[in-house]
Amino acid sequence: MPKPIVPSHPVALSLAGGGSKGDWIIGNLEWLRTVGGLDIRAGAGTSTGSLCIAKIAALIATGDEKHWVELKDIYTKVKTAGIIRHTSGLARLALDTGLSGEGDAATIGLAHAVISGGNAVYSTSPLAALIEEYVSDSDWKAILKAYKTKKFLMGFCYTDYETGEALLATNDGSYSRDDLKAALLASASQPVLMPPVRVGDRKACYDGGIRDINPIRHLLARPELQDDSWVQSVLAIYTDAEAVSVQEAPRDVISILGRTIDLLGYNTVEGDLKQSQLSSVVRRLVMELNPEALSTVLSDLPPDTAALVDEVLAAPYLPVYSVSPPNALPGSSLVFDPEVAKKRMKSGFKHAAKYWAKPKAPRV
Questions:
Q1: 66 CB contacts (<8 Å, ≥6 apart)?
Q2: CA-to-CA distance for 178 and 197, rounded, in angstroms?
Q3: For residue 209, which of 17, 62, 73, 306 is within the disulfide window of CB 3.0 to 4.6 Å?
Q4: Which is nearest to 209 in space by CA: 168, 166, 259?
Q5: DSSP code at position 230
Q6: Secondary structure class of 218 (helix, strand, coil)
Q7: Please, how many CA atoms are within 13 Å of residue 345, restricted to the half-sphere of its CB?
């Protein structure tokens, strides 16, 4: 089967969640940017994908390559303690004195949260500080301006726990700078492990992966993508493999939660991949039908199915490229280990080199 050619036209990125495994996404994008010459004009992310999109948006909005360097640094230099910290003093003491590992400390933290009536095992203050450090006020200003000049459309997927909605916070002016910061933090805040985040008037917001591990449906619904001067295709990248991996049974709370998140991701990835690819094919096939033939086809469908087809057809036709690891990535998505991150990032780079065919250079 021939390799897909790296698109030579503007594309939109749709980046999945996956905690620390976002490094695999970065490895793929490193090859696509430096070797494939990928032209990125829009992007949406969930959780770790949102952090990647924030830095890519800053890179494109400011033209400063430091943002790409810093994005790689976040994953290859920052450890777990630089992302989250225990809310329980006892759990921190057990870790600091070496009396327990992270798994046992998480169990202590969970017990503390239940007994004290708390809402999380960890505080995300380190992650909030990291966001402040790596995306400055001037960067946010440039990102908001980038939408107005059709330079870049940015989105963070998060979940409102009061309404149950999955939402996309964008730089189109509907969200303030502070609310975009909050949405970015909420997008990466996993329930129970991390506290809720207030985004505007929405008081309890969490990880977008609760509803959409990859925000592709939100991205395809954006009116900007109906204008081919923005983008002409979508590249969705996942951190979960399509096939379930076999692992030794987890023994502590943090390992069980990590495995649960990974397993929930498999079905979501499979569903997202098939739905986005099938919807794209259906729209393309329908474009070949004349109105009379289309009307005949729809009249033979049950009302609910016909309504679903109408919804698919209402979206713009955009080719969707979907990329996911061939096998389960090593390590836990809840643990940030710079050495493991470097290996996964290298794996992502190699995968992209193997998966894609470089675009042909134009004749002079």
A1: none
A2: 12
A3: 17
A4: 166
A5: T
A6: helix
A7: 18
**Whole-number Å distance between alpha carbons of 269 and 332:** 18
Strands 233-237 and 10-15: parallel
Q: Are 331 and 20 in contact (CB under 8 A)?
A: yes
CA atoms of 81 and 234, how far apart (whole Å) = 34
Q: How far apart are the first and last CA of the chain?
A: 30
- What's the count of helices (H) and strands (E) in the chain, helices before strands? 13, 10
The alpha carbons of the chain give a radius of gyration, in whole angstroms, of: 21
Query: What three-state secondary structure class fits 233?
Result: strand
* CA quadruple 46, 270, 334, 134: dihedral sign: negative
The band of 136, judged by pLDDT with boundaries at 50, 70 and 90, is very high
Whether 243 and 19 have beta carbons less than 8 Å apart is answered as no
Q: Is residue 4 within 8 Å of 38, Cβ to Cβ?
A: no
- Secondary structure string (H, E, C) spanning 120-138: ECEECHHHHHHHHHHCCHH
Whose CA is closest to 306, among 320, 324, 294? 294
Tell me the per-residue pLDDT of 193-208, one tens digit each, with 9 for 90 and over.
Answer: 899 999 999 999 999 9
- Say if residues 22 and 239 touch (Cβ distance below 8 Å): yes
Q: Which tens digits make up the pLDDT trace of 158-174? A: 999 999 999 999 999 99
